[in-house]
Design brief:
The structure holds two protein chains of two kinds. By secondary structure, chain A is mainly alpha-helical. Chain A contains 21 helices and four strands. Chain A has a domain of about 120 residues: Rossmann fold. In chain A, strands 2-1-3-4 form a four-stranded parallel β-sheet. Chain B is about 40% helix and about 20% strand. The chains are: A mainly alpha, B alpha/beta. Chains A and B meet through helix 1, helix 3 and helix 21 of A and helix 2, strand 3 and helix 3 of B.
Chain lengths: ~500, ~150
């Protein structure tokens, strides 16, 4: 028999090539032929499509997501992992032979849908798979967060120069149409609007990209369209990044289910170009609007009336509560309730020492904690984080200072159960402290760049710093809890692949 | 390539080590002495991190600690024979032959190709046996530099 294989490993210098050599040798020894594409650090020379076409079966000896797996669609597949191929290549070859024979015995011709990933003969643990999907989504989302967040922050900074201390507020009020109707090249205000608007647009792709590439990891190309559409709707119904994760999985599995349909030959040609995009997008979009949307509204209404009912008597507990909410979903529904609660209160405030202004300051400071905590954690313990995370951590300084809580989403989305509680702890500390210190601000955003507008600014920064340190310590402690080596290998594998820009 | 993958001073024919950390460190120290690694602690941490992900022990008594690291000057191999064996997490028991592979972090593709060729040779039992039976350090270096040829 003829086989094609793909090998890859976390470091990309040893096991990738050992697996390739071992598979080639073992196949030859058993009277078969195996051609291996090594997706390692030295780059990979892709398999000749003719060789793939002639192959009876496919072997994945890969610890990274296989690049271009759609090339092998429809062929019997053994998904063995790199270690198995290195340690016992003969067994892997035997498994592949058995898979080919089983496919032939079932008599049904292999499905020919061009973009369908074939069903793996050996299923990797569900937890690992889910994590792999999340990591893929996050790795594609990170550049949007970095580009958008940094541009917004630069826009704020330049606005502070162009307008003075109110700049970060003014820049958001300017109608963007000025950019294409009345742009003045020498006008710093216009430049800051330009930076802010481009940044905000890039940032708008955050949830859609997360959703789209989670779906892509699950279903390959057919996942992208329903993933993007579902994610965009999730953002528009206010479901935040957690909603985006939900739509990503939904769209991915919908698309995967559809590519596996056994349809009459005549229809197969139009499946990937018309039928699957149409149906998967329809279903994913409808589910997002009709099933994910309503609870968001309920959460919003319920929490808002609950918050309003609490009153603003006990400021410190309220600060703790708002801090917890701000850091729970980083731009999602719960975060938004807390934020809107603070901003709507501002109409009753006239000076920055009024109660509503203090509440606003507590909310703003708490929202700055997660990205700053991540930035600090990656700076003091770089070894605990993957290369991509360290890079994300650096831009998180700027995002945190600009009150862009979303800067922490790459971390929260990749590891929600460890990260979110750590963020919430720091947010609660900062929210409570700001209330206790009585710092207030009338500006609804701007973060560090509106410090001149804050009453008792030094105490505000102190509260922020304490929460940041608490949260960073919590992040580092949480990373030690219940980790398994498989997870770590996966993480560094993903980040290497993301850095190599090969995904 | 200016520097051969391995030289006789990177071979330890009779390494004494109780665990893989000590064995790895001994080989790292050889690389530092040869000027191929700039920071023993830093490189060791990188190797440990890789080892923690997935043990590098292989059937047949092989331990294969390795890492790409900013502390590495040139692609290098150090070989240690531990007659008593030292555990590298392989399913079939301790490793008697330890290959430490050091790859520069910013390695260009020529660097990486020679390491790929090395990895491919390591799979062959004949290659491993000839190293295990080599008479002296010079012979080990000769075998490696002769057989590991980038494709």
């Amino acid at each position: 028999m003829k086989f094609v294989a793909v090998s890859s490993c976390p470091t990309g210098i040893a096991h990738t090539y050992m697996a390739a050599e071992a598979l080639e040798q073992a196949a030859a020894a058993a009277g078969h032929e195996c051609v291996v594409e090594t997706q390692g650090a030295a780059g990979s020379s892709p398999l000749d499509p003719a060789v793939i076409a002639a192959a009876d079966g496919v072997i994945f000896a890969a610890d990274l997501e296989v690049q271009g797996r759609e090339r092998f669609a429809g062929k019997p597949l053994v998904d063995a992992g790199v270690k198995a191929a290195v340690h016992d290549a003969a067994a892997v070859i035997a498994q592949a032979v058995a898979a080919v024979e089983a496919a032939q015995a079932s008599g049904r011709p292999a499905p020919v849908s061009p973009a369908a990933p074939a069903a793996p003969a050996r299923v990797v643990g569900t937890g690992t798979r889910i994590r792999q999907y999340l990591m893929t989504g996050v790795s594609y989302m990170i550049p949007f967060v970095a580009a958008g967040g940094i541009l917004i922050a630069l826009g704020f900074m330049l606005a502070t120069v162009a307008w003075g201390q109110n700049g970060a507020i003014e820049v958001t009020k300017v109608d963007p149409s000025v950019l294409w109707t009345a742009f003045e090249w020498g006008n710093l205000q216009h430049w800051s609007v330009l930076l802010f608007r481009i940044g905000a647009t890039a940032f708008g792709f955050l949830v859609p990209a997360l959703s789209a590439y989670i779906a892509y990891a699950i279903a390959d190309r057919p996942g992208i369209v329903p993933g993007f559409v579902g994610g965009t709707i999730a953002a528009s119904v206010g479901a935040g990044f957690l909603g985006g994760i939900a739509t990503g999985f939904l769209a991915g599995f919908l698309a995967l289910w559809m590519v596996r349909w056994n349809v009459p030959k005549g229809v197969r040609g139009v499946m990937p170009v018309v039928v699957i995009p149409l149906l998967s997008t329809l279903l994913a979009g409808a589910a997002t609007y009709l099933i994910i949307g309503p609870p968001m509204k309920a959460i919003n209404d319920g929490l808002t009336s609950w918050l309003d009912g609490l009153g603003t008597g006990a400021l410190v507990p309220l600060g703790i509560l708002l801090g917890l909410m701000m850091c729970f979903d980083l731009g999602g529904p719960v975060n938004k309730v807390a934020y809107v609660f603070a901003t709507t209160g501002l109409v009753n405030a006239t000076t920055s020492t009024d109660r509503p202004a203090v509440i606003m300051a507590a909310v703003m400071a708490a929202g700055m904690v997660p990205p700053l905590a991540i930035a600090l954690a990656t700076a003091v313990r770089p070894k605990e984080f993957s290369e991509a995370e360290r890079e994300s951590g650096k831009s998180a300084w700027l995002l945190g200072l600009s009150f862009i809580s979303e800067g922490a989403i790459p971390f929260a989305a990749a590891d929600p159960f460890r990260m979110i509680p750590s963020f919430m702890l720091g947010g609660a500390v900062t929210g409570g402290l700001v209330m206790a210190f009585g710092s207030g601000v009338l500006a609804p955003h701007g973060g560090f760049w509106v410090t001149p507008l804050i009453s008792s600014p030094l105490l505000f920064l102190l509260a922020l710093a304490i929460g940041m340190v608490v949260s960073a310590v919590a992040v580092l402690v949480a990373k030690q809890i219940g980790r398994n080596p498989e997870e770590e290998a996966l993480e560094s594998a993903e980040s290497l692949a993301a850095l190599a820009g090969k995904r | 390539m200016a520097l051969p993958l391995i030289t006789p001073e990177l071979v330890a024919l009779d390494l004494q080590a109780d665990d893989r950390d000590v064995a790895t460190r001994a080989l790292i120290d050889l690389m530092v002495a040869a000027g191929r690694v700039t920071d023993a602690d830093g490189f060791h941490a990188d190797v440990r991190a890789r080892e923690a992900q997935m043990a590098t022990g292989m059937p047949g008594g092989i331990g294969l600690p390795h890492a790409r690291s900013e502390h590495v000057v040139a692609p290098s191999l150090a070989v240690g024979r531990v007659l008593a064996g030292v555990d590298f997490g392989a399913p079939d028991g301790p490793a008697t032959l330890i290959f430490l592979i050091a790859a520069p972090a910013g390695g260009d593709s020529d660097h990486l190709k020679i390491l790929a060729a090395l990895a491919r040779r390591l799979v062959h039992e004949s290659f491993r046996t000839s190293i295990l039976q080599a008479e002296d350090a010079g012979a080990v270096a000769d075998i490696v530099n002769r057989e590991v040829v980038p494709s």
